[in-house]
Structures are given as C-alpha cells and as structure tokens.
Write a structure and sequence with these properties.
The protein is of the alpha+beta class. It contains eight helices and seven strands. The protein has a seven-stranded mixed β-sheet with strand order 1-2-4-3-5-6-7. Helix 3 (29-39) packs antiparallel against helix 4 and helix 7 (156-166) crosses helix 8 (177-187).
Length: 195
C-alpha cells in the first residue's frame, strides 16, 4: 500500500457507474476508492454463484499484497476482500458484502476437480475451523484456496488429518502431519489445491 493511500490521501475517484454499483450492493465508497487506487484499474461488477461483487484486476503478487494490507479494514465494514483467479496470470481483487468468511468459497465455487469435495462441504469445514482457531481466506478459485493463520488449532494432528482428507494432493508436498504443521507455523499460510 502506498504511503499516500495509507493516510487516505490521493485516492482515485469512482466513476458514476462504479459508485452506483458499489452503493447498490452496500460497499463502502472509501474502501472502493482504496481498492481502485491500489489496483490502478477500474472496478467492474461481477456476479458469481449468485453473489454480486466488485472486482479489479491486477498482477497476482500485487493482489496478495493488497489483500494482506487491506483485509482488516474491509472486515470492519462487513466486506470480504480476497484474490480470485481462474486462469494463470489473471487475478482479480474481489470484494462483496458479507460477514461470513466462508462466503468467499461460495463465491469462487471452490470444490476442486475431484469427487471428494463440494462447495457446501468446504464451507462447512471452514465454518467449523473458524470456531476452533483464527485464520482468513486470502485467495480462492474453483480448484484452490489459500488461508493465512493467526492461531493454530489445539489438536494439530486431527487438523492435519482433516487437511489431508479434504486435499489429498497436499500429501505430495507434506508427507506427514508434523511437516504440514511446521510449514503452517513458519509461514502462517496453507495453500490447498485440487488437480
């Protein structure tokens, strides 16, 4: 985030169409101006899985920086903010009105490409985890999900087993529970993917 944007200065103005759409779906104008400024692209309406949102395209590495730096501000206004990508090299920072973090999974239609998971099951799992430890969703797509942890689960072995069950592909990188937990402890990040 640029220094001027941090202090709320030099935020880009919204066009009449951007302002009308953001207002209609209940998004905070100042935060929409911040999103437009940080991504340096216009905001566009997007409707995915019956959730109306605003999206702004940017480079993948920029998207994650924006989400990491701005997510708490959006959360305090009951808005989800995350990186959304369906194709290599094409990333949007997306925001919509919701108090529920798992609604990001519903928007993205995250389920993977196997018959093991479906979107409802992943939403239930994320909702369950949110009662046991603290994390946020930084990014999602139909076949991937990235979480950042503030706290870790008390029962780390049971958590690792759940991760391996829901995302069998992750065993190729982390062959046993302790290796997975050490990686999360060190990086605070868990990336799930389904090939």
């Amino acid at each position: 985030m640029g220094l001027l944007q941090y202090f709320g200065l030099a935020l880009q103005k919204l066009t009449a169409a951007e302002l009308e759409f953001a207002d209609r779906i209940g998004l905070n104008e100042e935060l929409m101006r911040l999103l437009k400024t940080e991504t340096t692209t216009s905001l566009k309406p997007i409707n995915q899985n019956s959730i109306e949102a605003v999206a702004s395209s940017t480079k993948p590495e920029t998207a994650y920086t924006i989400v990491k730096n701005c997510k708490k501000r959006f959360d305090t206004h009951g808005m989800r903010l995350f990186a959304f990508s369906e194709q290599e090299g094409e990333t949007n920072v997306v925001s919509f009105k919701s108090d529920i973090e798992s609604s990001i999974i519903r928007f993205a239609g995250t389920k993977g490409k196997t018959n093991v998971n479906n979107t409802d099951m992943l939403c239930e799992l994320i909702d369950k985890w949110s009662t046991q430890f603290e994390f946020v969703i930084h990014g999602a797509g139909s076949d991937w999900l990235q979480l950042e942890f503030t706290t870790l689960p008390d029962d780390k072995d049971a958590f690792a087993e759940e991760v391996f069950e829901v995302c069998p592909d992750i065993k190729t990188e982390f062959s046993y529970n302790e290796k997975l937990i050490d990686s999360i402890r060190n990086s605070k990040i868990l990336g799930l993917w389904w090939d």
